[in-house]
Design goal:
It is a single chain. The strands form two sheets. This protein has a five-stranded mixed β-sheet, sandwiched between helices. The radius of gyration is 17 Å and the shape is globular. It has a single domain, classed as Glutaredoxin (3-Layer(aba) Sandwich), CATH 3.40.30. It is built from nine helices and seven strands, in the order βαββααβαααααββαβ. By secondary structure, it is an alpha/beta fold. Helices cover about 50% and strands about 15% of the residues. The model has no long low-confidence stretch (mean pLDDT about 95).
Length: about 230
Amino acid sequence: MHVEIWSDVACPWCYVGKRRLEAALAGFEHRDQVTVTWRSFELDPSAPRTTGVDAATHLSQKYGIPREQAEAMQARVTAIAAEDGLEYRLDRQRIANTFDAHRLVHLGAAHGIQDAVKERLFRAHLGEGADLGDRDTLERLAVEAGLPADEAREVLLTEGFAEEVREDERTAAQLGIRGVPFFVVDRTFAASGAQPAEVLRDLLQRALPAEPAIPTVTGGDACGPEGC
């Protein structure tokens, strides 16, 4: 069984979705039959590599809302993330282009540690305020996740894995994915948003005997190009 997850490391709901999928897999008796692949999705492909702008300011400017309202939005997702064991510090989060981060996730896949790379980037960006547009920072995080420093540096200084990221994004467009996280099981069943663990476990269970329909569970919290 192949579970593909389209996500962006800038998306707070995607990290929540990761934890909930892990909980779903922990209670799934066929866990050893499941392969998980992280796919790339950029919420803002046009973002500058690094901006120095904090997330609350970005939300306020993007939606034309008071900063206090933006901070309240952050507080909501922070509280929900805490219920899943995640410690967010969105007051430290900095807006940056995530294309290079996605390329490192593909390098992680080549080394069989894609999940570890994804986890480290999530935690750094959403909990530590790491600037994912800064290539020195990305190299450090890649090494901490277990990647060879020379290979991470080479990817960041070249176009390494750029086509793989773009292919993920083309596939997302073909599948009609407009928000993340988005879970696809065997290209047959799908769920959008950070669904509860029991919903994701049911999705896995239903995928065991292949069925012709392609039902999509909707309604979970998610991030899209228009925001979270």
